[in-house]
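Q: For a teaching session next week I want to show students how multiple molecules come together into a single three-dimensional assembly. I've collected the sequence lines for a complex. Could you give me the predicted structure tokens for the whole thing so I can convert them for display?
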Amino acid sequence: MKLVVLLSVGRHPVSGKPALPRTEAQAIRIAAELGASIGLHVGPDAFPAEAALGHGLDRAVHLACAGGPDPIGPLVARIATEAPDVVLAGRRGQGGEETGLAPYAVAARLGVPIVPDAVAIRPAGDGLVEVDQALPKGALRRLVVRTPLVVTVHPNAPAPLPYAFGKARRGSIERVDAAAADLAAVAPAPEERPYRKRPKMMRAAGGSAADRLKAVTGEATAGGAKILDGPTPEDAAKEVLAFLRRVGVLAPAGAGATGPTA
Amino acid sequence: MTRPRRDPRAERAAARTAGAERPRYDLGAKASASRRPRRDPRTEAASQRVPGAARLRLDRSQFGVVPVLAAHAPERPAEKAPPKPVIVENPDFLVLVAPDMAGGRLGEHDRQLFGAARELAGKTGATFALVGAASPDLGPAGADRIAIAARDPDAYDPDGRAAEIVAAMRALDPRHVLFAESADGGDLARRVAVLTGEPLFADAEQVSASALGRPARCRKVEQRSAPTRLVTVAADCVASYAGAPREARLETVELSTDRTGAAGAIVSARLIPADPATVPLALADFVVSAGNGVTDLDLFARVVAALGATPGASRVLCDAGLMPRDRQVGASGTVLGATCYFALGIAGAPQHLQGVADCEHIVAVNTDLHAAMIARAGLGIIQDAQLVMPAILKELERERGDRP
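A: Of course. Below is the structure for the complete assembly, covering every listed component.
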């Protein structure tokens, strides 16, 4: 299987130094375990390509161009020549507009489907891959999709491989100047100012300290409670099970195994 | 300034009650200089007394309340009529909202989305919600108009949903289209942005009618722009709509979609629910938790397995080494996002209640009627958890036996 990983210049969340975004490093791990894969970066700086080699890729392509142009054109042109089965990207590339649109735009230009938030990819034979998509509350959606396709990686994917200096030295970076015909002008960047931290939104502001504590512990929303004082354990058990079924976390009686998920 | 000099003889003479043979003075009626009513600690304590308790319990939050005798209790005010919904008859423009509505219910993030939409719509605009199924919560949440999409809400078809939104945009020509920056909503917004070719203002943290703001470059800078057409709104940054309920008028919109591109590439989609026994506590949907009132932890483990729940514990059990630390619920453990929380033998310290503040339904079994956990619960049972646990197991077993 042939794979391409899209790379961007991120910032380390603590030190602010240039770093490969974590989801892209996770994408590299998924790609390196699946087969021959290359990294692809468009921009003036070769840094992400070098970092990608250290995290597990053997080959990276740096499509060099000055300034911060729209990367979609050169990316699509190069991916079309490489003809990979799967194109992997982070959830949201950094350093550019940071809208997370790039993988969607690439998929639309290539005319291939996009699957967001993948945590694992397995080949499923004959031009098919099985993609595990992360859903809220720990659930997964297992999709079988025809290749080629674009996949973005979820932060819950396996942790990235650690950076290895020797691996970064052994890998090769191919530097190509992006064709001017592919470069399109980007939309004017919005006005930027230093980030100001804002106070966290509270459920209930004001009131006395007791009111605020009630808001934090959820007592303010409590009410309409049904209280049974000293029932027999059997009655209590029946009441609890009936409540859990009404709420919908327990399968109805006689619906097979207990628990909606069992 | 000097205080006027008191004349005790004149004061006494003024307090003298007339008519009596013997001189009598009504000294109790004398107004005090400060005009503050005299406190009677005994009456106050009596008014704070919680009725029905065997031992003396005083509710100190009832400070300064004078007890009202039943005979003199004021008439209960008549039930207030529900506030009239706000109607925008001829809106100047529309703000289209595409809430996630996971499970057909309006989540907290969806409500914040409507809050942002109302902020953008102002007095003259109207919010238009495109939902999978109607819900009575939509009006109070801030929807002026709603339309029901025809698609199957359970099927995984993000391209179809994006095409529907694009069709709605063509039919309604809204000034703004708002999505939640969640897994589903963010995906949908980007598909719509690619389909329409319009710029997307992603992850907006500040929303007002004049400007949108979002963090960028690892929260080192803040980007601001005038409200664009396509916007995704971050979670917990914009307040939900808190005004009078809106109309939520049902309208029909032509949502004919022309499916093109990579439709049909997805061969199959299967949902794999999380394994409740191993899922991290923060992600669990149903948590059964043990506290100091639970002594038999093997029995507790069997109850958890029988209910198909995720086990949790209070700080006391974790400190004692009876449960692993990653199972601790509360401010110093895990803050839950569960739908239902079942507390066995937990009294409910404030730090523990902080951990379950987001839980929608709470069941508590405790021996103390006045425990904070019982006050917070939707179903409170005053009974020993050690006796209720085997009864639950027996009841589940009996149901399984009854099944043909």
